[in-house]
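U., I forgot to send this yesterday:
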Amino acid sequence: SIMSQLYKDGIVRAIDVDEEELMKSCMLFSRCEGIIPAPESGHAIAGAIREANKCKESGEAKTILFNLSGHGLLDLAAYDKN
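Result:
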C-alpha cells in the first residue's frame, strides 16, 4: 500500500496513542475547531498536537499535516464518557 511504502521510505512514521490521550486530543480539537472528529482520527490529531508542542518548545516553524477521516457524530457516546 501507499502508506506502507511511505513508512518504509521514512516519509511518515507510526506512533502509539492511548485512549486517554486520544480522547483529550479529540476534545481539544472539537473546542478549537468546532468539529467533532471520529475517534479513529484522534490518533492523527494526537500526533499533530504532539508535533506542534515539540515545535512550540524548540521554536521551530513547521508545516504539520494530518488526515481528518470523518466526523464523530455517530460516536457521541464515546465523548460522553470523557
